C-alpha cells in the first residue's frame, strides 16, 4: 500500500499563488454555514468530500472559498485531468510558487480513482505550506489509504449524510424557488439538494411551468432524466441493469440479489457501486445491506416496468421464496401480493389476527389496499384478512361483508388441514362481530378456539372472547378461567388482548371484593398499553375505563412531592381517555361497548359525577336489546343503577326530592316502554309505575312524560 501523505511543508519558491477563476456561487443557493464552519475549523491536511452527484460538493467549496481569506487553487473535472501528466500540468499552471497557506481543490479528478494518482497527490501536498489543505471532491471513493489516514488524524471526511440538507435548509431552498413546503417531497428527497431542486421544477414553481398538484417522486421526468444522464451514465450498462432489476427489493443484500437475479457475488458489486457514487446507504458497518435512495429506487422501478415488464412476476416470486426461507413473512408477503393471490392470502392470514390484536391495523390495511375487491373476494384467506382489519377498525358492516365473502369462497368443502384455520378464523370474526346474543357469542368463540392451534394468536383472541361471553351470561367461574388464560399468554405479541384480559380480570376481582388486586391488574393493563405505544388505540377504551374505576376507588394517599398525579386526578384523566377512545370506534361490538360503559359508570359515580354515570348506564342498557340473554350483564347493570339512584337522591332538593323507587321509574321514561312493560322490568304493577311516574311529573314540575324527561335531562338525572 502506498505510504500516507507526507507532512505539508513550505515550497522552495516564493511566487504568489493564482487564485480560483471559477465563478461565484449562483444566486438563490442556500447557505451552508454549519458545513462551511467545519471546513474553516479543519486542521487535517487532507479533506475528502465524497458524495454522489447532486449533493452540492462544488457549491459548498465555493461557499467556503468566499469565507476563507486563504487563496484557493482549483483543478476541476474538465479538460486536461484525464491522466497523471495532465493533472500535474494543470497543477503547475494553477500553482505558481507562493508564500502562505492555501487551499488546493481537486474537484472530481478522474486520475485519483487509481493508485497512480496517490503518488501525484503526495507530490502536490509536499509543495504546500503549513496551514494548507488539499481537498479532493469526488463522487466515488478516491484511491487513497483512507483507513490509515483516519487513524493518523490526517483526514477530514464529509460524506452524503453530512452534505444532505436539514429540513430547515430544504425548506429554505424550496422557498427560494417559490415553492410551498411539501412534506412528502422533503421525505422522498432525504436532503438530496439536486432532488429538492428537481422537486421545485416538478411542482411547477420554476421556469414558468405550471405543474401544481403534481406528485413528486422518482418516476417524474425531471428526476428520471437527471438520474439517468448525470448519475448513472458513468456506470457500466450491465451494472445499471443490475440496479434496475433489484429495484423491487427495497433493502438490498448480496444473498437476496443473488437469489432473485440468479447470479453470484452481488454483495461485492453492491459495495463497489456504493463506493463508486451510486446513492446506496449502508445499513450496517460491514456494508452487507444497503438501501437505495428513494428517488433512485422509484425511477429504477418505473424503468423496469417499462423496459422489462416480463421480468417483474419472476423477480417477485423469487423474492417471496427467499424471504420465506429466511422466515421474514412480512417481506415475503410484500412480494407475493404482486404475483400470487393464493400464497399472498396464506401469508396475510398468518399475520392478520396478531397484527389486529397488537394495534397494527394500519399495516394490515396497507397490504389489503393492494388488492381490488374481486381479488379479495375470490380468496378466502384474503377475504378473512380484510374482515379482521375492518373489525379492528370498528367497521362491523364491512367486517360482515368480508366474512360473508370468505364463507362463500370456502364453500361447502369439508374441513381439512388447509381449511381448518380459515374456518376457525371465520368463527373468530363472527364472534368479534357480536351480531347475535351472548349465547351465540360464546358458541362462536368456542368454535374458533377449538379450530385454532394452541400456539395460534387466534386461539388467544377466541379464548378472551369466550370468557367475555361467559361473563355476560353470568357464568363467573368459567369466564374467569378463560379470561385468565388469555391474559397470561402472548404478553408482547398481543398487548391489546392482554390489556383487555387484565381489565376483565380486574372487574371480576373487584366484584369478588379484592380491591387491591383489582387496582394492580387495572394499572398493569394501562401500563402495557402505554409501553406498547397503544395509549391511543380505540380498543384500549375498556382498559382505561376499568383503570379509572379502580383508581377513583383507591384510598386517598398522603400528599407527595414526586410530581405524580394523585389517584383522583389520574382516574379523571383515564375516564376522559376511555370516553374519547370509545367514541373513536364507529360501531363497537355490543359486549365491548356495554362492559366499557358499565366500568365508566362506576368510575364516574366514584368521581361524584352522577349525571354522566347515568348517561353511561342508559347507553349500556340499550345494548341489552341485542344481548337480551346476558343475565350477568343485566344483574351488574341493575346493581350499578341502585348506586346511581342513591347518588341522585339529592338532585332535586327539599321536600320534593325523588325517592329511589321514583328514580328507578324515571330512568325508563325516555324509552318506548309502556307503564305495563316498565312494571314488568321492575317487578311491580302497572298501577304502581303510573303512581310513581305521576309523582315524578309533580316533583319535576312537568305536565307530561316528555316534559318530565326534558326536565330530568336538564338537571342530569337522565341523559341522551
Please give the CATH class of the domain at 483-556 and 564-642: Mainly Alpha
Q: Which percent range describes the beta-strand content? A: under 5%
Treating each run of at least 4 consecutive H or I residues as one helix, how many helices? 36
Number of strands: 8
Q: Which fold name is given in CATH as the topology of the domain at 483-556 and 564-642?
A: Serine Threonine Protein Phosphatase 5, Tetratricopeptide repeat
Assembly category: single chain
Sequence stretches where pLDDT stays below 50 over 5 or more residues: 1-28, 205-213, 556-564, 651-655
Tell me what the structure shows.
This protein is mainly alpha-helical. Among the domains are: 33-163, 3-Layer(aba) Sandwich (Rossmann fold), CATH 3.40.50; 167-216, no CATH class; 483-556 and 564-642, Serine Threonine Protein Phosphatase 5, Tetratricopeptide repeat; 652-714, Arc Repressor Mutant, subunit A, CATH 1.10.10.10. The chain contains 36 helices and eight strands. The longest helix has 18 residues, at 631-648. The N and C termini lie far apart (84 Å).
Task: Summarize the structure in short.
With about 725 residues, this protein is mainly alpha-helical. It is built from 36 helices and eight strands. Helix 26 (about 495-510) runs parallel beside helix 28 (about 540-550) and helix 30 (about 590-605) packs antiparallel against helix 31 (about 610-620).
Amino acid at each position: 500500500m502506498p505510504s500516507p501523505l507526507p507532512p505539508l511543508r513550505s515550497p522552495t519558491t516564493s511566487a504568489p499563488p493564482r487564485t480560483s477563476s471559477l465563478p461565484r456561487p449562483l444566486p438563490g443557493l442556500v447557505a451552508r454555514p454549519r458545513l462551511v464552519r467545519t471546513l474553516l475549523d479543519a486542521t487535517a491536511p487532507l479533506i475528502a468530500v465524497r458524495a454522489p452527484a447532486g449533493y452540492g460538493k462544488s457549491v459548498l467549496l465555493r461557499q467556503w472559498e468566499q469565507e476563507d481569506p486563504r487563496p484557493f487553487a482549483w483543478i476541476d473535472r474538465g479538460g486536461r485531468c484525464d491522466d497523471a501528466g495532465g493533472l500535474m500540468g494543470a497543477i503547475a499552471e494553477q500553482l505558481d510558487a507562493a508564500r502562505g497557506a492555501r487551499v488546493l481543490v481537486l474537484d472530481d479528478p478522474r486520475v485519483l480513482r487509481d493508485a497512480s494518482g496517490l503518488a501525484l497527490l503526495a507530490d502536490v501536498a509536499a509543495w504546500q505550506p503549513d496551514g494548507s489543505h488539499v481537498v479532493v471532491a469526488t463522487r466515488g471513493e478516491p484511491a487513497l489509504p483512507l483507513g490509515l489516514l483516519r487513524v493518523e488524524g490526517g483526514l477530514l471526511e464529509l460524506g452524503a449524510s453530512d452534505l444532505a440538507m436539514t429540513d430547515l435548509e430544504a425548506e429554505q431552498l424550496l422557498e427560494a424557488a417559490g415553492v410551498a413546503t411539501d412534506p412528502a417531497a422533503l421525505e422522498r428527497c432525504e436532503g438530496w439538494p439536486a432532488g429538492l431542486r428537481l422537486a421545485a421544477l416538478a411542482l411547477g414553481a420554476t421556469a414558468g411551468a405550471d405543474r401544481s398538484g403534481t406528485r413528486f417522486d422518482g418516476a417524474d421526468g425531471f428526476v428520471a432524466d437527471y438520474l439517468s444522464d448525470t448519475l448513472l451514465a458513468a456506470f457500466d450498462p450491465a451494472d445499471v441493469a443490475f440496479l434496475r432489476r433489484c429495484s423491487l427489493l427495497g433493502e438490498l443484500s448480496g444473498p437476496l440479489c443473488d437469489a432473485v437475479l440468479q447470479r453470484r457475488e452481488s454483495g461485492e458489486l453492491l459495495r463497489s457501486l456504493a463506493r463508486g457514487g451510486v446513492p446506496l446507504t449502508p445499513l450496517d458497518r460491514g456494508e452487507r445491506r444497503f438501501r437505495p435512495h428513494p428517488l433512485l429506487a422509484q425511477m429504477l422501478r418505473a424503468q423496469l416496468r417499462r423496459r422489462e415488464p416480463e421480468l417483474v412476476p419472476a423477480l417477485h416470486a423469487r423474492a417471496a421464496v427467499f424471504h420465506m426461507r429466511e422466515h421474514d413473512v412480512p417481506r415475503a408477503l410484500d412480494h407475493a401480493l404482486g404475483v400470487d393471490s393464493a400464497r399472498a392470502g396464506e401469508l396475510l392470514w398468518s399475520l392478520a389476527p396478531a397484527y389486529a390484536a397488537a394495534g397494527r391495523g394500519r399495516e394490515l390495511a396497507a397490504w389489503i389496499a393492494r388488492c381490488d375487491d374481486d381479488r379479495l373476494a375470490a380468496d378466502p384467506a384474503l377475504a378473512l384478512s380484510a374482515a379482521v382489519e375492518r373489525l379492528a377498525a370498528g367497521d362491523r358492516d364491512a367486517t360482515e361483508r368480508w366474512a360473508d365473502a370468505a364463507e362463500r369462497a370456502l364453500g361447502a368443502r369439508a374441513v381439512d388441514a388447509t381449511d381448518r384455520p380459515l374456518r376457525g378464523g371465520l368463527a373468530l370474526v363472527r364472534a368479534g362481530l357480536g351480531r347475535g346474543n351472548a349465547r351465540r357469542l360464546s358458541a362462536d368463540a368456542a368454535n374458533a378456539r377449538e379450530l385454532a392451534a394452541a400456539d395460534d394468536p387466534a386461539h388467544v383472541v377466541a379464548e378472551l372472547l369466550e370468557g367475555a361471553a361467559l361473563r355476560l351470561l353470568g357464568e363467573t367461574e368459567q369466564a374467569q378461567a378463560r379470561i385468565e388464560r388469555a391474559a397470561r399468554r402472548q404478553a408482547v405479541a398481543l398487548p391489546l388482548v392482554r390489556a383487555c384480559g387484565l381489565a376483565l380480570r380486574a372487574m371480576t376481582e373487584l366484584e369478588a371484593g379484592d380491591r387491591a388486586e383489582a387496582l394492580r391488574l387495572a394499572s398493569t393493563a394501562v401500563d402495557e398499553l402505554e409501553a406498547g405505544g397503544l395509549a391511543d388505540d380505540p380498543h384500549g377504551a375498556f382498559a382505561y375505563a376499568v383503570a379509572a374505576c379502580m383508581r377513583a376507588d383507591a384510598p386517598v394517599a398522603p400528599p407527595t412531592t414526586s410530581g405524580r398525579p394523585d389517584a383522583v386526578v389520574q382516574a379523571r384523566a383515564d375516564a376522559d381517555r376511555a370516553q374519547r377512545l370509545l367514541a373513536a370506534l364507529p360501531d363497537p361490538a355490543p359486549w365491548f361497548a356495554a362492559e366499557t360503559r358499565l366500568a365508566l359508570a362506576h368510575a364516574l359515580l366514584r368521581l361524584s359525577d352522577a349525571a354522566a354515570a347515568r348517561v353511561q348506564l342508559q347507553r349500556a342498557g340499550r345494548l341489552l336489546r341485542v344481548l337480551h340473554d346476558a343475565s350477568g350483564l343485566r344483574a351488574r347493570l341493575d346493581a350499578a343503577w341502585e348506586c346511581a339512584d342513591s347518588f341522585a337522591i339529592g338532585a332535586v332538593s327539599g321536600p320534593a326530592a325523588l325517592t329511589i323507587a321514583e328514580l328507578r321509574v324515571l330512568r325508563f321514561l325516555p324509552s318506548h316502554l309502556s307503564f305495563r312493560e316498565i312494571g314488568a322490568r321492575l317487578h311491580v304493577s302497572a298501577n304502581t309505575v303510573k303512581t310513581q311516574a305521576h309523582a315524578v311529573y309533580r316533583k319535576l314540575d312537568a305536565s307530561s312524560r316528555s316534559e318530565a324527561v326534558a326536565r330530568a335531562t336538564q338537571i342530569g338525572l337522565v341523559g341522551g
